[in-house]
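To the wet lab folks,

You asked to see what we're planning to order before we commit. Fair enough. Below is the target structure as C-alpha cells, and below that is the sequence we designed to fit it. If anything looks off to you, flag it before the synthesis order goes out.
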C-alpha cells in the first residue's frame, strides 16, 4: 500500500497569518496565505493542489483505460478548475471542472467519450472527491 505524505504549518491568525506546505518528496513546496487562497495573492493554496492532483490522476486513469481498450494515447492534457465559493455555511468547494484534450490515434469520438467518463468515475482522486460535482469536457484532437 502506498502512503503519500505532505505537511503544512500555519502561523498567526487567518487574515494576517501565513503558512508553508510541502510534500514528503520535496517536489511541491510553497507558501500560502489568506490572500493566495481567498483572493488573488501570491503563493499556492489547498484548492490549487487539489486541482493539480485531480488533473494528474485523471490523465493517468484515462491513458490507462484507453490502452486497455487497445488505443495507445499520444497525449492526454487535462486542466482541472476547483471552485472555492462562499456559501451560507462558509467557504467550500462547490464544483470541479475537468477539461481534457487527447491525441489518440484510431479511436472515434464515441469511444473517446466512453473512456473519458470511465476515467472520471474511476480515478482515485475523483472517487475521493465524489461529494463534489465534477464536470467533464473531453475533446479528441486529430
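Sequence we intend to order:
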Amino acid at each position: 500500500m502506498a502512503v503519500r505524505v505532505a505537511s503544512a504549518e500555519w502561523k498567526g491568525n487567518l487574515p494576517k497569518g501565513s503558512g508553508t506546505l510541502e510534500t514528503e518528496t520535496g517536489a511541491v513546496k510553497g507558501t500560502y496565505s489568506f490572500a493566495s487562497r481567498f483572493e488573488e495573492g501570491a503563493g499556492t493554496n489547498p484548492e490549487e493542489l487539489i486541482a493539480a492532483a485531480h488533473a494528474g490522476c485523471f490523465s493517468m486513469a484515462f491513458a490507462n483505460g484507453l490502452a486497455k481498450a487497445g488505443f495507445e494515447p499520444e497525449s492526454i492534457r487535462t486542466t482541472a478548475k476547483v471552485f472555492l465559493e462562499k456559501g451560507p455555511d462558509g467557504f467550500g468547494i462547490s464544483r470541479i471542472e475537468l477539461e481534457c484534450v487527447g491525441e489518440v490515434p484510431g479511436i472515434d469520438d464515441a469511444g473517446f467519450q466512453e473512456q473519458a467518463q470511465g476515467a472520471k468515475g474511476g480515478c482515485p482522486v475523483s472517487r475521493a472527491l465524489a461529494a463534489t460535482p465534477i464536470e467533464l469536457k473531453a475533446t479528441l484532437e486529430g
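Structural context that might help your review: The chain has two domains: 6-38, 46-141. The beta strands are 6-11, 18-23, 29-33, 75-87, 90-103, 134-141.

Thanks,
Computational group
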